Amino acid sequence: MIDRNNTPTEKAFLVGTIHHEITETIVTEHLDELEQLAVTAGAEVIGRFVQKRDRINPRYFIGKGKAEEIINQAKALGVQLIIFDDELSPSQVRNYLKLVNNIKVIDRTGLILDVFRQHARTQEAKTQVELAQLQYLLPRLTRMWTHLERQMGGIGTRAGAGETQIEVDRRLIRDHIARLRRDLKKIEKQREVQGKQRRDEFRVAIVGYTNTGKSTLMNALTGADIPVQDQLFATLDTTIRVLNLDNNHKILLSDSVGFIRKLPHTLVASFRSTLKEVLEADILLIVLEADSLVIDEQLQTVREVLMSIGAEDKEPILVMNKIDIIEDSPVLQSLKSRYPEAVFISALNHLRLDKLLERVVEIMDRSYRTATVSFDPSRWKEISSIYDQVEVLDSVYDADRVSLTIRGHHAQVSRIRALSENGSKYEN
Length: 428
What we know:
elongated
């Protein structure tokens, strides 16, 4: 981990392109987000360049003349880093590195990977990010050893990672990728064991665009102490908490990594074990920032990521957070008319959280089942544990049998029925 206190802040220059359906307004919003990413990574953004293109230039993305103009501007401003909002091909990165000596050129993907690297805290997250970085780096190594530090190094990087990678070859990197994949498989098996212990619980996963208040919502609902920071990707690891909604409804609530536009495919693949909580959830709370100017695009991004991991068919609850920031009532009313199915809350101020939990209970009740089960009185430990797992609607104690009418999550009811002496069918 780089000590940012002893590393001078790098000056960065952002580059965006207007092309096809991407308008100047959209590019401005995208560059605003790119600047957030750069600042989160530790850079100081001091300039932007927006170029209109009818087609993408295969050598420099924006054309050699404009590329040289950008580099000249960067040199004049004393910039150490040029960041493209679009993903550059390996050959395009190599072509830029031939034009500059002391300026690093990276794209949006490289920047996101650097942010993830800085925010990885657990061994699992560090392994996931390292795997994604190496997969991103591998095709960019060919004939570029002497430029690798400028190409690979993230914001604030000084020697270290870049120089050590220069000394290794593609085969060693592939071997390291294979080892990381094996490590992640071991972690995934551990998660599967833990998941079996929770298989009967009703599970709700908080998902959404990064920095929309997911961790704040988790803290507000459960009293957890997840660190909350006003920056992108403050949370990478999954946090799971038990939440008792009332005497008859208990859920496992999870919060994990946020999504973002153009989230690198290597990261999605590497974080698949972490995102498995999303795949196994009964309900997804899709959290969005109500005051965002690009809320439609953010929602589309979330849906695309969910589809990419196979979670598009999960029961969703759309959660519009940060309504306390919206001072214009007509703006809020317009948002409600556009998203009538959404629940509008403020996690920070604990506003309307009861409405959100009521919606969760409504969905839970749809999946609940009622059944009558019976046990021999000698199995008193199992009988007693049932009261902790499901709602007992009625009980009849006879000399040779104890009959219970129970209601709860279908998985719990099914398991209890399998343990019972009779195989009675569901009543409803």
